[in-house]
Amino acid sequence: MSEVDRAALRQLLVANYESLGKRLARRLGSSETAHEVLHDTYLRLESAAEIGPVRSPQDYLFRIALNIATDRRRAEARRLSTTEIDSLFDLADDAPDASRVVEARSELRALERAMAELPERRRLIFKAVLVDNVPRQELAKRFGITQRSVDLEVNRALTFGARHLRSLSQPFDSDPSESSND
User: Fold this and answer.
1) What is the rounded distance in angstroms from the CA atom of residue 147 to the CA atom of residue 133?
2) What global pTM score does this model have?
């Protein structure tokens, strides 16, 4: 469509603004929305790259306006309401604070030191079961022991690690007779 035809569409829109506005208001349920859509229709006509032949210019303008209204409705549906936005501000932050991160790192280093104190077989079994997810049956074969013995080694390593961590948090309540050779 040529610039002359585009100008004719703009003139038609301006000349029929009120009648198009009323028709859109009936369809959209709001005269305010209808007028906003008509303004956007004018802007779309201005920015359209290429417009093909138009058989019914007034219906063409109405269709553009309806498409714009549909686009607006979809965009509004994606936006959060004020209540929804306010509720997002009330969400608790699950991220640990700096002091908790430092504490967790300290506990991890203490647990690593405790695991280093375990007998080698117990440490290897513990790591294989809890870190590497090696089946207990495979570990029993590898170490020449029963699955029950694998479970006992894992439990002893867990108990020792838990005691070690408790002793760090309560240094004066620790029992010096506890050892890693349970």
Assistant:
1) 15
2) 0.44
